[in-house]
TrEMBL record:
GO terms for molecular function: dTDP-4-dehydrorhamnose reductase activity. One of its GO terms (biological process) is dTDP-rhamnose biosynthetic process. Pathway: Carbohydrate biosynthesis; dTDP-L-rhamnose biosynthesis. CDD domains: dTDP_HR_like_SDR_e. This is dTDP-4-dehydrorhamnose reductase.
């Protein structure tokens, strides 16, 4: 039996790992949430890892409030950099690989082509800067790491764009959604399945795939396009009398929807390196969004 320790058990990715765990009976997952291990307490992180002595650590925790991070800089760096460094150092001490997640918001969005792993990074805000610092901390502390950069994560769990849109579509007659930021919506349930599928091979002595990978679902679109997809999929699933059916969705520029943190205009990432190395990719948006709405309908959406 493989022993995996997961930080961030209560987040979208953490709960998706819990959901997928039933398909991987050879992996015994132990989940830590804020109550069991507050990552602000850096000393507690090493203790938790050394107490559990896992074969592998998965960090699904992060400070993810993009706008709030602009004024909560210390906490963002504490969780996204310092706590990650503590995790990576304890993993190195135990010789356990660390699987960590990062974001498209480390890029400035000026690329003319899907970002590859070696493209220059230049985050526009505190969240992206702190996540980039976390990546660097992992690389400095342990060679046995996998960093998966992903983007625009949604799921039946927690807070995300799909759930926000579904509730706003019911509450409002008109929604204005930015149409000049392009990225790849990605299901955390798909991410969780992919990661658990990799775990056994990562633990093989001959595994040579450590490093940084982009891992997204391959359907680039704007947030406006994504809202249209969500609306269409919801009407298809919940029927024409769904309360959000009549909501009008209008495209606007980012100037018309000001946010505290600036977001990249184009943060599409290529998962080619991942697919070439591991021989599979993530399902496309239609399939994954449909599954998410089905799970929401089945009541998997505890806030
Ligand atoms: N969400 C997205 O769109 C994207 C996410 N990512 C990355 O993917 C990974 C997973 O993200 P996702 O699941 O969406 O994130 P969530 O915000 O859903 O979950 C993050 C988890 O981290 C936990 N956490 C935060 N601070 C602490 C703390 N001090 N002590 C203990 N736990 C803490 C939160 O706990 P609590 O529930 O108690 O608040 C939460 O459960 C992260 O690395 C993120 O940066 C990358 C690209 C896009
Ligand atoms: C609610 C709403 C948002 N928007 C815009 C604001 C923003 O530009 C875009 C997305 O808004 P959100 O705040 O939901 O998403 P945001 O917090 O920017 O999402 C990011 O989260 C972090 C954690 C990541 O790592 C990124 O990959 C990305 O997923 O949609 C509208 O245009 N209209 C609306 O009604």
């Amino acid at each position: 039996m493989i022993k995996a320790l997961v930080f961030g058990g209560n987040g979208q990715l953490g709960r998706s790992l819990m959901l997928c765990a039933r398909d991987f009976p050879d992996i015994e997952l132990t989940f830590l949430d804020r109550r069991k291990c507050d990552l602000s307490d850096l000393g507690a992180i090493g203790r938790a890892i050394l107490d559990c002595r896992p074969d592998i650590v998965i960090n699904a925790a992060a400070y993810t409030a993009v706008d709030q991070a602009e004024s909560d800089i210390e906490q963002a760096f504490l969780i996204n950099r310092d706590a990650v460094r503590a995790m990576a150092q304890a993993c190195e001490e135990l010789n356990a690989p660390l699987i960590h997640f990062s974001t498209d918001y480390i890029f400035d969005g000026t690329s003319q082509h899907p970002y590859r792993e070696n493209d220059p990074v230049a985050p526009l805000g505190v969240y992206g800067t702190s996540k980039l610092a976390g990546e660097d901390a992992v690389r400095a502390a342990t060679a046995r790491h996998l960093i998966f950069r992903t983007s625009w994560v949604y799921s039946p769990f927690g807070k995300n764009f799909v759930k926000t849109m579904l509730s706003l579509m019911v509450q409002r007659d008109v929604l204005t959604i930015v149409n000049d930021q392009t990225g790849c919506p990605t299901s955390s349930v798909d991410l969780a399945g992919a990661v658990l599928r990799l775990v056994p091979s990562v633990l093989e002595k001959t595994f040579a795939g450590f490093g940084t990978y982009h891992l997204v679902s391959g359907s680039p679109m704007t947030w406006f396009d994504f809202a249209i997809h969500i609306h269409r999929a919801a009407v298809e699933r919940f029927g024409a009398d769904w309360a959000g059916n009549e909501c009008e969705i209008r495209p606007v520029s980012s100037d018309a929807f000001p946010t505290v943190a600036k977001r990249p205009g184009y943060s599409v990432m290529s998962s080619q390196k991942f697919t070439d190395t591991f021989g599979f990719g993530l399902p496309d948006l239609a399939e994954s969004l449909g599954a998410c709405l089905d799970q929401l309908g089945e009541g998997e959406n505890n806030a």
